[in-house]
Sequence to fold (282 residues):
Amino acid sequence: MNLPQNIVSKITALGAGLDLKKIGLHKQKSKIKKTRIYHVPNQYASNKQQLLYELLTNIDLPKFVFSRRGASYVDNARYHIGSHYLVNVDIKNFYPSINYKRIGHIFSELRIKISAIEPLTYLTTCDKYLPLGFVTSPFLSNLVLLKVDNDLFKLSRNNKVKYSRYVDDVSFSSNHEIDEKFIQGATRVLKSMGFSLNDSKTRIYGPSDKKIVHGLVLEDHTITISQEYLNLVKVHIEELQNRKKNKVNFTESKSRVDGELSFIKYIDMKKYNDLVTSYSLE
Fold:
């Protein structure tokens, strides 16, 4: 993870200049599908997190990581169109598995001065782990998983399998069967870095099965929208509205929702209109 020295200096200065007493947040429950606890930072923390995020995105991430800036889970789904076999796995308790020590280690690897590491870690974690709701969490989790990604990519390449990841959702696809031995190998890679799979969410698809990634149905040359995808978009809309209501930075959240709505509008106008009406989006 190499950053230009001027970016390293800016991140160090940001950390050194933080007033920890001004950092605050509150927790909010999502009402869509299942209970999710979002950590909503106050305006001071949100602004500082946004500055840090902009600086961190100078780090190039692998093309098979679709939770990077400029990519999306729609791109991740498209990546696997045409494959005869598909396996989706979910990393269990993803953000809670990334504790403050891992985040501090990331800043250390970026050559941030020791005096700035503790305040930066305080800014980006809550209850000693990476929280859901901070703009910095997805990118920091990508940095934590860099070794995992590279190892899984090598394992996949050696077995003629395509690999991709979007946050905690991992997908493998191929034109030959992906056997249990391969899945066990992937599980060992994750365990070596302190992660485990949520076995109840593992999905294995064969040539005759309807293949789904992030609730998007993969067809021969395109994708269609499932109810799972609509539920995910509803979660993102609710998160955006909560951020607006609490007057915290919502730039990235709005960009994501705008992209999702544009995609739904392109694929299915009726489902788009239903969302607009339900959430008073226009």
Summary: The mean pLDDT is 92. The two ends are 42 Å apart (CA to CA). DSSP finds eleven helices and nine strands in the chain. The longest strand covers residues 25-30.
